Amino acid sequence: MRSRLIVTTALAGVLLTGLTTADATGKDSGVARAFQATDRSTAWSLVERIPLRFPTYHPQGFALVGDLIFLSSVEVLEAPVKYPVPVDGYDRTPGKGIGHLFVLDRQGNLKKDIRLGEGTAYHPGGIDFDGQNVWVPAAEYRPNSRAIVYTVDPKTYRVTERFRVKDHVGGVVRDRTTGQVHGVSWGSRTLYDWTPTGRQLQSTPNESHILDYQDCDYVSRGKELCGGVTTLPGPNNTSYDLGGLALLDLKTNRILHEIPFPAFSPTTNHNATRNPVALETTGTKLRLLTAPDDGENPGGTEIQIYESPLS
């Protein structure tokens, strides 16, 4: 009887998902509360710019793992080309490329370059850390295509294929309370829900027509926080990116809070939420990490950090 009690006590903090109860709360559940206190008039200050002094290509997603930053990126070797008319259900060629998952320290120094993908599925998307592994999709660089969902051990860098999807998956998040994996399609027009082994549970149209989510992170029990942009036409044949952030309920896909983000990269004028985003809190500030510029842009890629006082 005594040994059974010991086993029960040892397992008390482990959920059926294989994650601990501490994992389930998210890396910082205070992020959700702090974000819900923001609005369109919240003042954000650019407090730090960290240049990345290695080829970064086209950054996609951030995952914060302790003192490390995981950054997904796609290196395009041959850009997809639009077909005059669809071919086999595709509107463009697959192109060629290499998928990267960079591991950085908080000073922006490159510690590891992990290659991901297979054949024409070379485009990593938005990524998430579930307390144990970093989840990364690698998809074809075209809509209505295919994707492979991987996990990467942040300690050993071991890559494991988890499942495959018959659609472009532009980002994934793991719900730490259910163990389910949530993803977005091309332009995040469809929101998916799978088991950890890839059985599809749900496919839902995105109720938001304001943002195309580029990167999402689990931030609190059953919630994800996403950043993205929508490219809109401007005057005189110009265009601009409307950027923003949104907090979603993973069970219902309902938007709980949403704001536009008013800041642009001082180097390129790209909206700050164009590529990877990650939020965290300090003792007195809500902090947003962004990397809106590509490696080939003037000045290359920087991690640009914005802060707003906690309410």
Features:
311 residues, mainly beta, Tachylectin-2, Chain A, four-stranded antiparallel beta sheet, 23 strands, 7% helix, globular, disordered N terminus
Number of strands: 23
| CATH architecture label name | 5 Propeller
Determine the strand fraction and express it as a percent band. over 45%
**Percent of residues in helices:** under 10%
| Helix count, DSSP H or I runs of 4 or more residues | 3
Question: What does the overall shape look like?
Answer: globular
> Any low-confidence stretches, pLDDT <50, length ≥5?
1-14
Mean pLDDT: 92
* Fold-level CATH name: Tachylectin-2, Chain A
Describe the sheet with the most strands: 5 strands, antiparallel
The CATH class designation is: Mainly Beta
Distance between the termini: 51 Å
Please tell me how large the radius of gyration is: 19 Å
Assembly of the depicted chains: single chain
Q: Give the domain tally.
A: 1
Estimated structural class: mainly beta
Instruction: List the helices and strands in order.
Output: HHHEEEEEEEEEEEEEEEEEEEEEEE
